[in-house]
Amino acid sequence: MKSPVGTYELPGGAVLRVFADHGDSDGYGLEITRDGETVRYDGGHSAREVRAFLGLFT
To answer: Between residues 26 and 37, which one has the greater pLDDT?
Structure first.
């Protein structure tokens, strides 16, 4: 996975959205939505961090 940008379904009905972080050209932001509530983690997460996160939950 070169660019993890996209939407991923997580267990328990949660959805993870990964988007390019405009403040850091190499970073990604994360947004998790579950039961109508959304939590956003902005900041320069690396592609490696995103892959690790996805590996834990998928």
So the answer is: 37
| Amino acid at position 9, single letter | E
The pairing of beta strand 6-9 with beta strand 37-45: unpaired
Enter the DSSP assignment of 58. -
φ, ψ of residue 18 to 5 degrees: the values are: -110, 130
- pTM beyond 0.85: the answer is no
* Cα–chain center distance at 31: 6
Of 4, 2, 10, nearest in space to 50 by CA: 4
One-letter amino acid at 42 equals D
